[in-house]
Fold this protein.
Amino acid sequence: TDPVSLPGLLAMKRRSEKIASLTCYDATAAALQDQAGIEVILVGDSLGNVIQGQPTTLGVTLDHMVYHTACVQRAARRALILADLPFMSYCTPEQAAHSAARLVREGGAQAVKLEGGRERLDIVRFLTDQNVPVCGHLGLQPQSIHRLGRYAVQGRDAESAKRIMEDACLLSEAGASLLVLECIPWELAQAITATVDIPTIGIGAGRHCDGQVLVWQDMLGMSARNLRFSKNFLAGNEGIREAVSAYVREVKTGLFPGDEHSFGRDET
Ligand code: KIV
Ligand code: NA
């Protein structure tokens, strides 16, 4: 099969074919995910949590991201490689371009992800103009943890939901190619997915997103954290290969995420 491309992902959205994505930080897992049919491999700065054992993603550096992206990239044949721009690596368009260039050149990333909405539009435009595809990230933004105070569902009240919807539209207009939605009510994710032309990839954002992403260690039940929106795919499957195939199958058929993995606007 042909390698996954951003136009290919857009075509999947248009024909309502779900996009399966997982985070990945090493070559062994990358080969396995690639062979199981994962379309987007995300080298997430969640590696600060699950690889480095830190309480937040803030300690992750550009060097860390480049190293893990290169490890993943060597083993992936078909999947698109998306790499996170880490905390403080995209404060200006120029710095963002320098950081993205390293992820692309040294890491082999095909697109970069950054957190934030209206305050990042100049950066999204600049990177897109330099031919670096950008994935936005709205809802819960772990790089904002010290401003937020805690990791919590975002966009539950009408005002913040409106703001997230506006940010999604602005990112799309600024040239973003993809949009990650993290921990928002499924109703809001559904509305955003229907409104923007670019594919949405949800985590804790319900079944109506164009695609789903989970953290590798969470979906294998390896991490200590017990997250409502995640699921242990190793349980009930023969091994890791089968677990990843089951994840791809459940995303494609709309079986995952279920209501039990989603947050509703009005529930507490
Ligand atoms: O770093 C990460 O794993 C992410 C996903 C949760 C989307 O950004
Ligand atoms: Na991230």
